[in-house]
Amino acid sequence: MGHRHGRGVSSAEITGTDISPIQPAWVPPNCQFHIEDAQLEWTYRPDSFDFVHIRALYGTFSDWGELYRQAFRSLQPGGWIENMEINIHLYSDIPEVKDDPDHIYKR
């Protein structure tokens, strides 16, 4: 996502992080990527970012409160956090699944 935004908004400075080395081979000059574990203490100083985007981390964090504390701490005044996650709840029209709150697919 970051490298696409970097191409579209050349005046922005994009910093992306991931725990895996999956970054594209080429990125615009205004983009940089770091291999980091967001569950550890963040190395960014307070007020570093005006936008923090968090995506597809469901099931990753044992302490979401700490993730948000660090994200908010790294925001500049007036900055935004965006968190996009999938909905993992099972929906079914099959009565034995739909009507049984203890069905194996709902555990």
Describe this structure in words.
The chain is of the alpha/beta class and 107 residues long. The model has no long low-confidence stretch (mean pLDDT 86). Helix content is 21%, strand content 25%. Strand 3, helix 2 and strand 4 form a beta-alpha-beta unit. The protein has a single domain, classed as Vaccinia Virus protein VP39 (Rossmann fold). It has three helices and four strands; from the N terminus they run H-E-E-E-H-E-H. A two-stranded parallel ribbon has the order 1-2. A two-stranded parallel sheet has the order 3-4. GO terms for molecular function: methyltransferase activity. It holds the Pfam family Methyltransf_23.
Number of strands: 4
The name of the CATH superfamily reads: Vaccinia Virus protein VP39
H/E series: HEEEHEH
Sequence stretches where pLDDT stays below 50 over 5 or more residues: none
Strand order of the largest sheet: 1-2
Terminal CA distance: 33 Å
Approximate shape: elongated
Structural class: alpha/beta
- Compute the CA-based radius of gyration: 18 Å
Report helical residue fraction: 10-25%
